[in-house]
Specification:
The structure is a homodimer. Chain A is of the alpha/beta class. Chain A has eleven helices and ten strands. The interface between A and B is medium-sized, with 28 and 28 residues.
């Protein structure tokens, strides 16, 4: 495995590679990242993992400076996973000049997480495009845990005509269901126990949606409109429950999984997305589901 | 020469090309475009010319609908110039969905032409990036006549880390000095005669700058500050002269040629840029010069 820190050296290294699969990360790797690497290995002969904590995607009051940086440990893990190249550029190398050219993401970037993290997806979109242009992969793998990010990256690839296949990889979870995240280590032991309640809440919502859809189906044709109305009360209940347990919910939303827009009649593939603070830690999670399971 | 109208077919055609030189155009080709093609032929084994009138870069009151479309004639000219592939996509193919992902150009895009054509360079930046991603050239050639556009494209390439060499090609002029442009055909015969006064004005300004610089040099060290002050009065005189002859000047500006920012002490490579309306036709032109010629 080679560890490369400059754009020039990386381009030189990859010049003759015909098939590159790319996993962009901010380092501080856990089993979730390593799973992305395994997926990448199935799709490209040469697997490149970037490690770069991107200042552009952190808000002024966010955790850019304290975000954990563990390059040496990360490289050990990546070597064990059979990664070919780690690209760990300096901020100076990636932002040689103040970044003025930015990628404006689609409008959905202002909703959900974007409504609470102004400019976040603009920063993500810009660094992802820069990294794509540097690595020039045929395939790039992103985790479904950052569901909105994955959606936005897909939109960027489609609308900017990038010749890259984007693969969304399933979320890896702890034994109690908590989605793995570098930010989990900010949690104290009590918070860590409580944290799993987020994914349980989403699972409960999912079950309630299925039950409700099946019930409405029995009532025949007025079903769809009722579903939409009832689902919004499910969102509210979930918010109330979490807030009552001491969480500070940013959003819990049931959306169409292919557009991330609010459900409209006819939508079948849905995703429940949530972001909530537990103490000083912001956690996100989501659950995909197919409403036909309940409606059929 | 192949004429290709879909992205899929173009990608297929170019898949095994090792060296592609690209000339993006809006068609209605004249000798200026053909000169870009000649430059491209010196830089790539396979020359691709795109023809696409990009709606994103036209303002609501601009000439998108009446912009001359002459595909058949264009293709004849390009074949004579030894072009390998003409890429003439439909609007539907290039903008399959409403374009939400946009490239935000650098701040300079709001000055000069950008101050009068809101959103223009955002539209240019976005379509140029899309075309770059589709064609994936090693080299792309742009005319210096659209000087600010060339500057912005260079910034996009640098700041988004595109592996493309951008070549700026000299402006081709009519016998009387008028810069060739598809929009020149909007001029009536009287206007066409008057139109050459724009480049003569820039040439006169250039001469006056050299004279003044030489004169100030003789007065020794206070020279640079005087230059800056005096040059702004040259801009004003040129505006007044053109307006008095019936033009409507948008801007005439003496700028640093590498940043397009106003001159600061020490700048040597400068460019005089102008945009002005003659009747219903908007003309632009520019003149590069090196102030050391006068100062030495």
């Amino acid at each position: 495995m080679q560890i490369i820190s400059t754009i020039t050296a990386l381009r030189h290294r990859l010049r003759d590679e015909e098939s590159v699969a790319f996993v962009p990360t901010m380092g501080n790797l856990h089993e979730g990242h390593l799973d992305l690497v395994r997926v990448a290995r199935e799709h490209g002969r040469c697997v490149v993992v970037s490690i770069f904590v991107n200042p552009l995607q952190f808000g002024v009051n966010e955790d850019f400076s304290k975000y954990p940086r563990t390059l040496e440990q990360d490289c050990k893990l990546l070597e064990q996973c059979g990664v070919d190249v780690v690209f760990a550029p300096s901020e100076q190398d990636l932002y040689t000049q103040p970044q003025q050219v930015m990628v404006d993401p689609p409008a959905i970037a202002n909703e959900l997480c974007g409504a609470f993290r102004s400019g976040h997806f603009r920063g993500v979109a810009t660094v992802v495009l820069k990294l794509f242009n540097i690595v020039q992969p045929q395939v790039a793998v992103f985790g479904k845990k950052d569901y909105q990010q994955l959606h936005i990256v897909r939109q960027i690839v489609a609308q900017l005509n990038l010749p890259i296949e984007i693969i969304g990889s399933e979320t890896v979870r702890a034994a109690d269901g908590l989605a793995l995240s570098s930010r989990n280590q900010y949690l104290n032991p009590t918070e860590r126990t409580e944290a799993a309640f987020l994914c349980r809440t989403l699972a409960n919502m999912g079950k309630a949606m299925r039950d409700q859809a099946a019930l409405n189906q029995a009532k025949l044709n007025q079903a769809k409109l009722n579903n939409l109305r009832d689902f919004s009360s499910l969102e509210q209940e979930a918010r109330d429950t979490l807030n009552a347990r001491g969480w500070k919910v940013e959003y819990i939303a049931i959306r169409c999984s292919s557009t991330l827009l609010p459900l409209t009649a006819g939508d079948k593939d849905v995703v429940i997305l949530a972001a909530a603070w537990l103490g000083k830690t912001r956690l996100i999670d989501n659950l995909e589901m197919n409403l036909q399971d309940g409606l059929s």
